[in-house]
Each structure stands twice: as C-alpha cells, then as structure tokens.
Amino acid sequence: ALDLKLRRQMQDELKAIQKRVGTAFIHVTHDQEEAMALADHCVVMNDGRIEDEGPPERVYARPATRFSATFMGESTLISGTVTKAKDGTITVATQTGSFSLPGTLPAGAAVALAIRPEHLVLGAASGAIRLGTAKVSDVVFQGSFKRVLAVSEKDPALHFIARVPAAAAVRPGDIVAVSCDVGDVILLAG
User: Fold this and answer.
1) Which of 62, 153, 166, 169 is 20 to 30 Å from 26 at the Cα level?
2) Which of 52, 71, 90 is the last residue of a domain?
C-alpha cells in the first residue's frame, strides 16, 4: 500500500539489491505491473496451477492462455470459431466479422482473439483488421495516455479497451472505427 513514487523507488532498490547479492529472489504479488517490472521470469498461477511462465515480455505479449491474457494486463477478448485451416493460416469467424490469421488450429476449434489496449486503433481504420465501429462510453485521462472504453455497434456485448495518446480528441458518445494490426492479435484456444 505504498504511494506510486515510493513503490517505484522500492522496485528500483529491490532490483539493485538482487544484482548486488547475485541470488534469485521469489517475489509473490497480485500487482501485474510490479511483477513485470521486477521479474526476469514470471509465473502466472490459477487455482494452484501454473497457467503460463516465461520472460515477462513474452507472458504479456503472447500469453499462453485466456486466463493469463486477462490477468497480465487488460485485453479486448473476441470469441470466435475457426472456419478454415490451410497452410499455416486459419480463418476465424467472430461477431465482428471473419479474419485470416497465422495459426494451425483445426476447423471447428473455438478460439478467443485477445488484443491489448495499446494495439487497438481508434478513428481512421489503418489496421489490417477492421473490427467495426464502436460508441465511446468512457474516457479516463491517465497522464501519458487516455484509457478509452467503447461498445461495439454490431454487438453490444463486445467492449473494446483502448489506450490512446493523452492529446487524442475522443469523448464519450463519439462513434469511432476500431481496427488493429494482424500481428498484434493474440490467438488463444477456447
């Protein structure tokens, strides 16, 4: 329960002590940002089982499971089904449309597409995958960025979480195009 500045100083001090002492530390926390800041190797546990493990960059960028994707930071999750699989490419049908992605899952497999907030593009649809339009429901200024919540116009059950520059002109009630780069989509089983 330390304030942000003191917590950052404590993290820096813990890393310096570990380097100076040269031994492994085990740090147990529910603070995902702290885990990624301090760890050389992250282990994500769920009900006493290891869900995911590896370097924090990999666990965040390419989580192994749906639980890990939602536990290690925010994600927009889009459910889908593989409708076609050929030569390392799959077609996934979702409530926002069908998308071709790299993958080797069989046709009929249930999947989830996870997209991190910093990878969603609002406004001009410059990404390779167009996810439709959404109505902005909330905008939260967080210093160096704004956290934007938006509801899909095609499927009101689908909520997008985006991180946009602090200077972005976006307000609740705006209708925005939503897209992302195909390389930023995290494909998860089930």
Assistant:
1) 62
2) 71
Domain of 88: which CATH number?
Answer: 2.40.50.140
Q: Domain residues for 100?
A: 76-189
DSSP 8-state symbol, 45? E
**Residue 180 identity (one-letter amino acid):** C
pTM confidence score: 0.86
Residues 60 and 127 in one domain: no
Give the span between the Cα atoms of 86 and 103, in whole angstroms: 9
**Selection from 110, 97, 109, 60 nearest residue 182 by Cα:** 97
Count of structural domains within the chain? 2
In angstroms, the CA 103 to CA 62 distance is: 13
Q: Which of 50, 71, 92 marks a domain boundary?
A: 71
Q: In whole angstroms, what is the distance from residue 163 CA to residue 20 CA?
A: 37
Cα separation values, 103 from 34, 78, 89, 131, Å: 32, 16, 5, 19
Residue with tokens 């705006």: 174
66 band by pLDDT with thresholds 50, 70 and 90: very high
Give the Cα separation of 184 and 24 in Å (integer).
Answer: 32
